């Protein structure tokens, strides 16, 4: 029974694209995916930085009260 589950099946590889068009496609897809990931993670990164720096900012007077949540943004 286990032998059937672990039988290796040959994998057919897709033909490799070559040339400038393939490079441009890969480059563009990488740029778009990076843009989406940076856009999605930017608000989380901002909250992280606010929490990390709030004590020092309160001491220097540039922040009047600690961060209380996402609705507490300037």
From TrEMBL:
Solcar repeat start and end residues: 21-74
Signal peptide boundaries: none
Listed GO CC annotations: mitochondrial inner membrane
A Pfam family this chain is assigned to: Mito_carr
Protein name: ADP/ATP translocase
Species the sequence originates in: Capsicum annuum (Capsicum pepper)
Function field: Catalyzes the exchange of ADP and ATP across the membrane.
A single GO molecular function term of this UniProt record: ATP:ADP antiporter activity
Catalysed transformations (reactions): ADP(in) + ATP(out) = ADP(out) + ATP(in)
SUPFAM superfamilies: Mitochondrial carrier
């Amino acid at each position: 029974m286990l032998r059937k589950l672990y039988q290796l099946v040959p994998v057919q590889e897709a033909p490799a694209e070559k040339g400038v068009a393939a490079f441009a496609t890969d480059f563009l897809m990488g740029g778009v995916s990076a843009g989406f990931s940076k856009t999605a993670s930017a608000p989380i990164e901002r909250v992280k930085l606010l929490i990390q720096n709030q004590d020092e900012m309160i001491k220097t007077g540039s922040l009047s009260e600690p961060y209380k949540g996402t609705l507490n943004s300037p």
